[in-house]
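Collaborator request, handled under Task 6.
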Amino acid sequence: MRTKIQSHKQQSFGFKCTQCKQIIPMATIEIGTEHRDHCPFCLYSLHVDEEKPGDRLSPCKSKMKPIGLTFKNNSWELMIVYECLGCGSVVKNRCAGDDMHVALVDVYRTSLLLMTSQQWKNTYAKRLQQAHIEMASKEECRQVLNGIYGVGYIPNEISSEFGISMV
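Structure tokens returned to the collaborator:
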């Protein structure tokens, strides 16, 4: 049987993503968070926190699928919106500095397409409203992409795809 000390020591070395199977290093202050809560490659997470980041008190423990991006409170800090595939809850978590740009753009692109569908309205609209989460919209595209790449560093092919003038 593992003790709390052994479990904590093992966790400090990171984890294996349950979705893409990549080995994920432990969180460090350099990535902008002390509590790694998702895979930087596929952005999937586990429903492990209940009340606050790092508490690891959720009884669910199911996979959480990234379904979109939002902003933290009244700032331009990007956050990933998740749907728990076990209990269905919708939550947001901070992006980490080592999240793969292509994965973040893919989640944003997919959410923009889905937000116009009836499935989105039937499945997510009410749950997002109850969780007080407003998804990043097409109108916020420049702010989203600046949040992913950094101001002035959006690749030309991405700015063209999203119709952003870099002048």
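The cover message to the collaborator said: "The helical segments are 4-11, 101-114, 118-123, 125-130, 141-149, 156-161. The chain has one domain: 13-136. Please let us know whether this matches your experimental observations."
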